Amino acid sequence: MGADATPIYLLRDVAKAERQPDAYAFVAPNPRVQAPPQSLAVFADSNEMTSDQQRSIHEDDIVFLDLADTAADRPNNIYAVEHQGRVHLRRLTPLPSGLAFTADNPTFALNFIPADQARVLGRAYRIVSDQSPTPSTRLSN
C-alpha cells in the first residue's frame, strides 16, 4: 500500500485514547470522497446493523467515521456510540420516548440505546462492503 493508505481499526478501539490499527489492514484513499479532518476507518464487528436494506452494514465491512461529528443531531444517520463499556454502530432514530440509537437488524430491535445514555464517538460517512453489488456506499449528510 502507498503512503496515502488509511489504516483500519477495530470498532471496539474507537473509544480508546491510544488506538492501534490492525497491523495488516489498510484501504486505499477514494479521490471522490473528501475525508473529514478527524476521520477513522473501522471494521464493523457484529451483525447488529445487518438487514434486508440495500445499505446494510455487515460484519467486517469497513465504516469510515467522522470523529468530530458527535452531536447526534441527524436522525437516520449511523453513529459509533459507547454504551455500558461496549462500542456499537447504531442508527439515530426518533422514538415516542425520544431519540435512541437502534439496530437495523430486527433481532436487536428491543436493544435500543436512549441517546442520553450513550457517548457518541463519531458519525459514519462512508461504508465499504463486499456484500452488495455496489462495493462503496456514501451515506447522506
From TrEMBL:
Gene3D superfamilies: Umud Fragment, subunit A. This is Peptidase S24/S26A/S26B/S26C domain-containing protein. It comes from Deinococcus arboris. InterPro entries: LexA-like (IPR039418), LexA/Signal_pep-like_sf (IPR036286), Peptidase_S24_S26A/B/C (IPR015927). Residues 26-124 form the Peptidase S24/S26A/S26B/S26C domain. It holds the Pfam family Peptidase_S24.
